[in-house]
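Tip: read the tokens left to right.
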């Protein structure tokens, strides 16, 4: 997943650090303000085992955990 983060120039480094701490990789930094705003792209790698994706796949295949096998 890729998101562009736009922030005020005075908060640029702080916002970048917050995203790094949450596991994002930073790309395409634009630290020079344009109209007072700077930006960067935060990239998060989707793990191989995606629990939400697995639940969706189960639901689509007719496996509903709320009814169970009786």
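Filled-in amino acids:
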């Amino acid at each position: 997943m890729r998101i562009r983060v736009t922030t005020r120039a005075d908060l640029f480094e702080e916002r970048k650090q917050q995203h790094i701490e949450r596991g994002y990789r930073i790309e395409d930094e634009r630290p020079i303000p344009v109209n007072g705003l700077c930006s960067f792209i935060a990239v998060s790698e989707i793990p191989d085992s995606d629990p939400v994706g697995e639940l969706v796949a189960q639901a689509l295949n007719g496996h509903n955990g709320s009814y169970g096998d009786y």
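The longest helix spans residues 12-21. The chain has a mean pLDDT of 84.
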